[in-house]
C-alpha cells in the first residue's frame, strides 16, 4: 500500500477549526492498494464496508510531522490504518495562512510503515493552515478567513490544455502573476489540478472547485464553504479569466481586454491608471472624449503636455471636450504616482 499521488487535492488533506486561539486539525489520507492488475484507492479513515475490509488486515500506520519556518518539528501524530475515526490534533499558537498578504506554509511529511515499522512510502509537501467559514449577517452571506472578514475577488479559470508539462506550468505561473496584478484573491476551477493547487497555496489564492450537484463552487480544503455562481447582489457573474469571448484577455494572447482594467480599478491596491482606447470619441464640436479606469481617488488628464482637467471619483473617469489643437494629440493620464499615455489622430472617427 502506498500514498495516492494522483489524488486531486493531494495525498494528505487537513481541515482546520479555530477554538480559543488553538487550531484543531482533522486529517484525511488517500492511499492506493496495488493488487497486481489494478490499483484501488483507499481513504483513511474509511467510510464504506468495502474500504473497511481492505484495511482490516492492515496493521501499519501513518506518522505525520509538521515543521515550522526554521525546519523545527512542531507537531507529530500517528494514525493506524485500521482506525475508523479520523486523526485529530491540536496546534497551539498556530501560524495561519492569510492569503495574498501572508501565504505562510508549514512543511509537512507523512510516512507510511507496516506493522514491524518498516518504511512503505513517504511523501513531503507544504500545508496552508487556514480556517474558512461562512456566516449570515443581516440576511447576506459573509466569508470569514481565520475569523476575519474576507471580501472575495474571484475569477473563473480554465487550466491550460496545450503544450508540454513545462509549458503548461509556465503558463500557470504567468497567469497567477496577472491575477496578482489584477487584485484577485479567489480562483474558481472547473476541475482540480494538483500542481496548480500547490501554486495557489504558495501565492496566496483561495481555490474553489465547481460543484457537480448544484450551481456554485466549493472550497478545496473543506466542503462547508460554498461560493455562489453569481456572488454579487447586482447579478454580475464571476468574470472569466481566459476564454473565447467575454473574458479578461483577448483570445489566444496576453493582451488584456477593457474588462480587465475595469476589474483592476475595483480590486487592485497598487495605484494604476489606464486610458481606454475603445472609449475615444470624436464629438460634434471636433473635440474628443475619453474614459480612464483607475483605482486612484483623483486622475489628471493632459493634452500635449498641457493640463486639461482634474477629476475626482472611483474606478471610471470620463473626460469630455478635450481640445484637438494638432493633427496628432498625446493624451496622458496621471494618478497617485502612476501614469499612462496614448496618441490619437484627428482622422479618428467613432
How does this model look, in words?
The chain has 350 residues and is mainly β. It has four helices and 25 strands. The strands form six sheets. Strands 1, 2, 3, 4 and 7 form a five-stranded antiparallel sheet that branches. Strands 13-14-15-16-17 form a five-stranded mixed sheet, covered by helices on one side. A four-stranded antiparallel sheet has the order 6-5-8-9, with no helix packed on it. β10 and β11 (140-145) form a beta hairpin. α2 (165-182) runs parallel beside α3 (194-203). The radius of gyration is 26 Å and the shape is elongated. The termini are far apart. The model has no long low-confidence stretch (mean pLDDT 88).
Brief characterization of the structure:
The protein has 350 residues and is mainly β. It has helices spanning 49-56, 165-182, 194-203, 258-267, and strands spanning 2-3, 12-19, 22-34, 39-44, 61-67, 73-80, 87-91, 106-113, 119-127, 132-137, 140-145, 148-150, 154-157, 186-189, 206-210, 217-219, 226-227, 273-275, 281-282, 288-294, 298-303, 306-312, 315-322, 328-334, 339-345. Strand 16 (217-219) and strand 17 form a beta hairpin.
